[in-house]
Hints:
Order of helices and strands: HHHHHHHHHHHH
Strand content: under 5%
CATH architecture of the largest domain: Orthogonal Bundle
CATH topology of the largest domain: Endonuclease III, domain 1
Oligomer: single chain
Number of strands: 0
Number of helices: 12
Amino acid sequence: MPFFTYGQKEIAHLKAKDPVLGAYIEQRGMIYRSVNPDLFSALVSSIISQQITGKAAQTVFQRLKDLAGEIKPENIVKHTIEELQKCGMSFRKASYIRDLSEKVATKTFDLESIRALNDEELIEKLIKLKGIGRWTAEMLMIFSLERSNVLSYNDLAIFRGLRMLYGFSEITKDEFVKIKERYAPFASVASLYLWDLANPNNK
């Protein structure tokens, strides 16, 4: 599986714009986070991952793969919500995945078309789907489309990383916006380091 692509250009920019983050980047070195270019399976994985640990999400995803074979909409729609639920997910998540599969399989929703949209247009289109919020759309933007400037306000680990990095007790929305502006246009790379800082056991 490929990794999120970045290099010296992005690192140099972030170090110049933010010496505090730059010091952590220097200490940590390159981060290799896998990406999944397949939009459908990546979106299914993101739905599964909502509000559970990464390890638990991997287990559920593998069970779904064992049940359906390759994670494709035409394979998922062969199974009932109850069958999907038995893979270890909630009834609600199973219903979201079944609904997504039906819409993509019948071409009611053209998933591939989002590749041509800008970030905000993409989010607006995706959140019309059941079970897809802004966070899920943003994770797809980073870990499937490799969009360069995503820093999720809805991600608890991002906030934990920011507090650890800068010694903040709280971060207001205005402060968050200023931080993202500082990281732009490579906020996604900054996100990789903030997640890494917030989750040392995942290294």
